[in-house]
């Protein structure tokens, strides 16, 4: 238990970070275990509200894979994946849109409001926030490749004092259809369009590990130029590759720093942003 002096020291330590980030945009992609566990869910929402109250403009981009899987199971529909992406036929697209833009998005907004924050729910269809075409290569169904981001609706929400909560369903510009868009990719593209100070991806791992079997082998910082060598060495592998590529794209697009954080750690966002210790892996 912290004594009063230790609590004061914690606040003093946070002050320069609050001063540095006040008025800046931070895009956080939220999903995985942090959405399932009630304790972690509360910690993430508390972190976001605190950041809003100290003047940091948080944009929350969310997934909803477990909720989509649950609804498909209830309806007796198959969950199918191709190269890690959900195959999305017309019926599945209807479920994705209703679950992500409806229940998941509005539940997040309601929770933020109940906890004393101010939020507004949006999806990529609103104001044509995300414009996409059908993803090429293999047949993924109605999975979209984001081609353009129109962030005006996000800027308006922030100017009105709200936390934008964004579901990643995109406006089709090649077909008359919405598209299902990977949330990491959408968050990276939005961070670029918003000229964000930071992009944070909450995951189910500590970050990038030098030895995937040893969580104490966390690599705290990676330069974008080091990524190809780490891939060749087999250190960045599997599901971490697309996350790292999203971070590299964001850095190339002008985002100052990107972070892969462990959403299983309570308050990992505050630890990363407002303490000397930091958390997870930073890519810059």
Commentary on this structure:
The structure is a single chain. This protein is an alpha/beta fold. The protein is 42% helix and 22% strand. The chain is built from ten helices and 13 strands. The strands form two sheets. Strands 1, 2, 5, 6, 7, 8, 9, 10, 11, 12 and 13 form an eleven-stranded mixed β-sheet that branches. Strands 3-4 form a two-stranded antiparallel ribbon. β3 and β4 form a beta hairpin. α4 crosses α5. 44% of the residues are buried. The mean pLDDT is 93.
Set down the secondary structure blueprint.
Blueprint (H helix, E strand, L loop, with lengths): L3 H18 L3 E6 L2 H4 L1 H16 L3 E6 L2 H10 L6 E2 L2 E2 L3 H25 L4 E6 L5 E5 L9 E6 L2 H8 L3 E10 L5 E3 L2 H11 L4 E6 L17 E2 L4 H6 L7 H13 L4 E6 L5 H7 L6 E3 L1
Parallel strand pairs: 1-2, 1-10, 2-8, 5-8, 6-8, 10-12, 11-13
Antiparallel strand pairs: 3-4, 6-7, 8-9, 12-13
Helix pairs in contact: 4-5, 7-9
Gist?
The protein has ten helices and 13 strands. With about 280 residues, it is α/β, with parallel strands linked by helices.
